[in-house]
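Before relying on records like the one below, remember that each one covers exactly one chain. Contacts with other chains, cofactors or solvent are not represented anywhere in the record.
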Amino acid sequence: MEIVQITLTDASYASSLGEMLVRGGVREVRRVEAPDQGLDGVIVVDPDALDRLPFPLDNPERIVLITRNDPQHLSSAWEAGIRSVVFSQDPLGTAVLAIMAAELRAPRDSHCPASHAVAHTVAGRDRKGG
């Protein structure tokens, strides 16, 4: 089961997003004060929470930033390596899609079941050419 950690200042948005994610039934949603980057899964943050994370970020491709359309926030996200940004006025469904995309991009821990592992092969060879 995927873990999604939510650290958002807007409690109403966080609650609604969490409820929407839980309805899908395939992820464990945790509302946390400070996300644990040591856990597998997706981390959903706002700019305040992003500022509190230690840099460099561990696996920034698994972080989803919920923010205003503010050039400073967008620039900070880009510099941190974050690829999933959702504007706070976008529908919740957009945030859910961004979380699903981040789940697909997130590296898997070695103890994850093989059925969840993403194959990195092209024509029978790994991408390093082996």
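The helical segments are 11-23, 47-52, 71-80, 92-105.
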